[in-house]
Amino acid sequence: MNRGTEQRSSIPVSLRIAAGSLAVSIAVLAIKFGAYLLTGSVALYSDAMESIINVLTAAAAIVAIRSAARPPDAEHPYGHDKAEYLSAVMVGTLIVVAGLAILWEAYGAVLAPKPIDAPWTGVAVNAMATVINAVWSRVLLRQGRKHRSAALVADGKHLLADVITSLGVVVGVAVAVLTGIDVLDAAIAVLVALHVLRSGWDVIRENASGLLDESVPAEELARIREVISRDAGEAIEIHDLRTRHAGRTIFIDFHLVVPGSMSVEQSHEICDRLEAALQKAFDGAVVMIHVEPEHEAKQASAIV
Questions:
Q1: Is residue 105 a contact partner of residue 42, using CB atoms and an 8 Å limit?
Q2: 302: Cβ–Cβ under 8 A, 6 or more apart, which residues?
Q3: Is 168 exposed, middle or buried (0-12, 13-18, 19+ CB in 10 A)?
Q4: Can you give the residue ranges of the Cation efflux protein transmembrane domain (predicted)?
């Protein structure tokens, strides 16, 4: 039996958050480039470059969420939820490209270091942008996990990484100015680039699992087994439980073994009860149940 419902109520919320993220990213980009233009610091340039990626990731999140919101069709009968994972992998790739661009700029600055102009003004301006990013990254991570949006979570993680690197840049530029060692500015940019490369790789690795139909986390799987065991009623056992996740949607399928004398209507009632319980526990879950007679029981691997 194929039993599932479409959960789309969180889509408008996710879209509004993604649109807000784009606006915040553009504002932060303008502030950080202003700090770079004031100072000519390659470290502040590297921080501004990462903000360009913030804008791109926010735009990609909007496209991905809109794509994932499309209902199933003839060519995509299971929906479009994986669009968010694809978007997140693309975002990770863009982050890696940004890291390489920063490394290239830093290399030139190492070969020809130069003093920083108006350093304290630039640091203050950059710090203001960092505070904005810190607040917004928390919003994205909290809302992304609440609405099971891989795109929002990826955007939030990248912003959080941006906050950490920005703090390092502010401290590093201050040290370079106080010590008069101009090459420290370029050295900081190199460290920022390495951090950006690592965060880009992490985003790619984490979201590639969604594209490969990875099972739900262990704690969610344990909860699924608990719900099934509690509501299986007169069933003999449940075996061959499989799960996967795609964006906000969890797919659950298993075999339900019932007594041979049980009517179709009775087995159907058990399926309805299990489906309702799982969808209550996991909002929007798509549940597939295959009913089997008792001689198909596999007690060694059974849940009930």
A1: yes
A2: 237, 238, 239, 257
A3: middle
A4: 21-212
- Among residues 193, 211, 229, which one ends one of the domains? 211
Q: Using 50, 70 and 90 to split pLDDT, how confident is the model at 80?
A: low
Dump pLDDT digits (tens) for 34-68.
Answer: 998 988 888 888 888 878 877 877 787 787 777 76
Q: How do residues 237-252 score in pLDDT, each as one tens digit?
A: 888 899 887 766 788 9
How many structural domains is the chain composed of? Answer: 2
Is residue 256 located within the same domain as residue 174? no
Residue 20 domain boundaries: 2-211
Domain endpoint, select from 155, 184, 211: 211
